[in-house]
Amino acid sequence: MLDKLKGGGFTGYLNFIFPSSSGILFFEGGKLISALHELDKARLSGFEAIAELSNQILAGGGSLSVYRLSKDLVMGLHALLHGEVLFKGQELKLIDIKGLLEKMKVRQLNGCLRIYTEDRSALIFYKEGAPLGFFHDGSNDIETSASESQKIAGLPGAKIDVLSTKSADELMLYDLLEMVNIDKIWDSTKIRYTAQMEQLSKEAQERDSVQQNERLRELEDDLKEVAVAYLGKVGRTLVDKELSERGGRDALLNAEEVTKFLAGVEKSSKLLTSLSKLKEMSDLMKNEIFNRVNG
Amino acid sequence: MELFADLTTISVIQVIFWFLAGVISFYFSIGNARIWTSISLGFFLIFISQAYLLAPWSDYPRLAAIHYIIGTVAIMVMTHGFQEYYVFSRTLETGGSKTFVYLGTLAVTLASAVFVFINPEPTYNVLRNIKMIENANWVFLSLINIDMIRKIYLQIRDSDIARGFIAFGAVFVCILLWKGSELYLQVFCWDSDWHLFMQSIGAYHNVDYPGRVNFSIMVNQVGGLLSGLSVGGTFIYLFRLLR
């Protein structure tokens, strides 16, 4: 897919959403200009982000959205995610906003201004010091009007982050697809992931086996208790014998072996107790096995 | 009435109870394991061996000999059953088939009958010898069975059937007294058969120890009666336990 995007000169971004993380790949003119992966507060970029994205993709359960954007907007978003932080969480009322905008104009900054309160937020993308467009929560597109952003800026407690980045043309100079051997990353990740999965699967099997063995041990103990209640202590030995003749307590998982086990117990029990008690005991054992194995 | 001249009340009670034990034991072995079949068949054969007392042709020597032999086979089959039960109580293993028990017992009985018929008709003395062999078997195998029953009881003492084995133990104690006292009288030639034999050849036989003889006869009668009662009671009890 990356080759296709590269070949098609794609500009925009790929947004990956995974159960516990997210990732973004920025493309500009078919070049992968940046990669970002976020897990909680940990951020990875570049090679590491691509490697982690490969991991997450292999783990499955994620979704991918592909957005085609203008070159400038990609730059703005790049600034938002990767840009150098000039100001972070500054209270707007403490800042000379006019002076700040003037400074941006003079320095011909490319980047993004994020204005936010607890409930609202707005983005202003800049290109060479001039506002490129406005984006705020609730809008579906870049707007040319600053009115909504100004409203948010006027809200009490509004804060501002100022992030700058390289120009779109400079960003174009980077192409992670050229710099990084994606195929190799993918393959090695795949091998590592498969190995991890196999290990996990093996551990899970061992865990299941231990749990199942524990469940069967409890079932065997209970069957012995039932036998002791109806036949006396010889009942315990009888259950032991019948199970060992069928290869141990694992036989309780096999319907055919269970039938043989119960028939063996019944045969010997005829010499130890009454037919009515024998039937009662046999039914109890049968139900106990059925409920525990299928329950 | 002459045919039943030797028949006493005790004998009648004995035969009735042995019959009861025989019938229940047969019923008991139906649908049950082979071990019970051996034990049950043994008890049923005692009835057969005792029933000759009621048979009008019991004075026919060959038939009397066969009855004594059946009595011997009875204790052997029964002992075999208890031995198998003991093995079962230790290993919980049961094997073999009922048919083999029935056919085996029938084969031994028929072979004994053939043996009796191809040989000269038994005299009183020969019959007495056969009876002694029967009594000796009963005495020693009863002792073995008492020990076996004790061991079985220790293995299964907290199961339902355990009390049934105590009853079996009591039965064999009674049988030991019954058959043992008769064997004692026979060994010292104080039994009625020896007396008849001596009479038949015109000899005089003086009994020097009348006290011991009378006591043994009493033990024989009481033991016989109690063994009949106890075996009937044991099977009724077992029937209730295993119903």
From TrEMBL, chain B:
The keyword Transmembrane applies. The chain crosses the membrane at residues 12-28, 35-53, 65-88, 100-118, 130-149, 161-178, 217-239. Keywords: Membrane, Transmembrane, Transmembrane helix. It comes from the Bacteria. This is Uncharacterized protein. It comes from Geotalea uraniireducens (strain Rf4).
